[in-house]
Write a structure and sequence with these properties.
- Helix 3 (175-185) runs antiparallel to helix 4 (191-218) and helix 5 crosses helix 7.
- The longest helix is centred in the middle third of the chain and has 28 residues, at 191-218.
- 45% of the residues lie in helices and 25% in strands.
- By secondary structure, the protein is α+β, with helices and mostly antiparallel strands.
- The chain folds into two domains: 2-218, Jelly Rolls, CATH 2.60.120; 229-341, Arc Repressor Mutant, subunit A, CATH 1.10.10.
- A hairpin with a 2-residue loop joins strand 2 (25-29) and strand 3 (32-38).
- It is built from eleven helices and 13 strands.
- The strands form two sheets. Strands 2-3-4-5-12-7-10-13 form an eight-stranded antiparallel β-sheet, sandwiched between helices.
- The protein is globular, with a radius of gyration of 23 Å.
Length: 342
């Protein structure tokens, strides 16, 4: 068992300490840090950045070569941790002697503790785990009243109460947060634009974590309703397939056969994951694909209608206008005008 020690919440110092403990190559680009690992201790990547309102975001995609504990002690700060596991299984606790909390794939956790206590993350040998951790410094001392209001609410909800030293909550599964993290992974922009896009997505994830906690308090039922985690993973695969191949003439019978799920379970899963029926999801994917084709190709509207799997140009124009408040022809003409004047 190997134990690593972290004694700071400062992003720059955090990555310096991680490199000191793990080795690897550390890069910094526009306040974003990336530690690449491929040695006898671990393989993978850790990346992160912090924002002005005392919120930091760190992503781990890592495999340790032996059982490992990452022990953090940050007596000078009092963070609330919002953690989400995208792959594998992660355990955390507040000492090596107390019981561990386990975080499975697609599961979220929120925890905080007395500043004098350690926080421990437990990693199994040769087990790849991918997770994110949003930390919010709970100290209320900002000049921005809206930030102080947020922190006040977070402290009220997620800090230990009534003389307790620990607050720990493990929520139900949430594929919407997984999808949002995938969007962060897909960001290709550089510099300030990249930081702003990550910043916006991190705040959305934070809001989703808080909402998840509220919903779980309302009901002790699994947020998947009657669906298992495996069935929700099937729903996610079907969703990705539709996004990659919008031109196919889908039916519930076809998707049911492809996924092995009943039509009713498909509908339930799509409502939970996308807040849409299967038909609404397919239609929305086609419209968004068409909008991208208008911007990035020289196809005419009729060709685009065919490419995204629709047969009626008038119907396409109707649903496009409902979403974007203009006709596809108007949108295309203005894209062309913009290219001419650029």
């Amino acid at each position: 068992m190997k134990t690593l020690y972290i004694k700071t919440d400062s992003i720059s110092q955090l990555f310096n300490e991680l490199q000191s403990e793990l080795g690897g190559k550390l890069n910094k680009n526009h306040q974003e840090y990336t530690l690449e690992l491929d040695n006898t201790i671990a393989t993978g990547k850790i990346s992160g950045l912090s924002f002005k309102n005392d919120i930091s975001f760190v992503k781990y995609d890592i495999t340790f070569k032996q059982d490992t504990i990452l022990k953090s002690h940050t007596a000078n700060s009092n963070p609330i941790n919002f953690m989400f596991c995208s792959k594998g299984q992660l355990a955390y606790g507040f000492s090596e002697k107390t019981s561990k909390k386990f975080l499975n794939q697609f599961q979220t956790s929120i925890f905080s503790s007395d500043p004098n206590r350690d926080t421990l993350l437990f990693f199994r040998k040769d087990h790849t785990v991918k997770f994110s951790n949003i930390k919010v410094d709970a100290t209320v001392n900002s000049e921005d009243e809206s930030i102080d209001l947020l922190k006040t609410q977070l402290v009220k909800t997620f800090m230990p109460k009534n003389g307790e030293e620990i607050f720990s909550y493990v929520g139900s599964y949430n594929l919407k947060i997984a999808e949002k993290l995938q969007q962060i992974d897909a960001i290709t922009q550089k510099g300030v634009v990249r930081n702003l896009l990550i910043h916006g997505n991190v705040h959305v994830i934070l809001a989703m974590e808080i909402q998840q906690h509220k919903e779980d308090l309302k009901s002790t039922k699994n947020n998947f309703g009657t669906l298992t985690r495996s069935e929700m993973e099937d729903i996610k695969e079907v969703s990705s397939f539709i996004q990659n191949y919008p031109e196919i003439q889908y039916s519930l019978k076809y998707l049911s056969k492809k996924s092995g799920l009943s039509p009713s379970k498909l509908q339930e899963g799509f409502k939970l994951l996308h807040d849409r029926t299967v038909t609404d999801f397919i239609r929305n994917v086609r419209i968004e694909t068409a909008e991208n084709l208008i911007k990035t190709t020289d196809l005419n509207i009729s060709e685009i209608v065919y490419t995204v799997g629709l047969t009626s140009r008038s119907y396409f124009s109707k649903i496009f206008k409902e979403k974007y408040d203009c006709s596809p022809k108007y949108y295309q003409d203005h894209q062309q005008n913009l290219a001419v004047t650029a």
